[in-house]
Amino acid sequence: MIDGRLDCSSKLKAMKKLTILLVLVLGSMTVFGQDFKSIVSSIEKGDIATIEPMLEDMIDYCFNDDQDLLEKPEFVSKLKSAINTIQPKSSEIVHVADSKGEAKYAVAKIVGASDAYRMFVYTEGDKIIEIRFNKE
Question: In what side-by-side order are the strands of the sheet with 66-71?
């Protein structure tokens, strides 16, 4: 520092640190968004095998008024049933955000054969802990 001002070398170091931090933050946000995109896309396609490894051992499940905490095998069965009921034709992620602690969530619109549903997917770390479907 010369006369209270940063010299060129100090400015360059500060810019490098800021650039690295920005890349890390934006990179993690992109990966996070892509994870939810693959989850929503898999549900739209009925491809449960893709998301099954991401499921926690116990998952909150909600389809309209049917709500329960289920073990993974029963959750998979209920999710397949929900997909068969909805018959998804398209999906769109509406919102992705952080929740408490390590929890994150996404809100998606799933357009089915006869109705549209709002789907909420909650994750903690790299595991899905809850999926909800509410008819719009």
Answer: 66-71, 55-63, 127-135, 116-124, 103-111, 90-98
Give which of 52, 32, 26, 44 is closest to 92, Cα–Cα: 44
Q: pTM of the entire structure?
A: 0.73
Domain ranges of the chain: 8-135
Per residue in 32-80, pLDDT (tens digit) is 444 899 999 999 999 999 999 999 999 999 999 899 999 999 999 999 9
Q: What architecture (CATH level 2) is domain 8-135? A: Roll (3.10)
Q: Cα torsion at 66, 67, 68, 72 (round to 10°)? A: 80
What does the alpha-carbon distance between residue 16 and residue 109 come to, in Å, rounded to a whole number?
40
92-99 contacts at long range (C-beta below 8 A, 24 or more positions apart): 93/33, 93/36, 93/37, 93/40, 94/118, 96/32, 96/33, 96/36
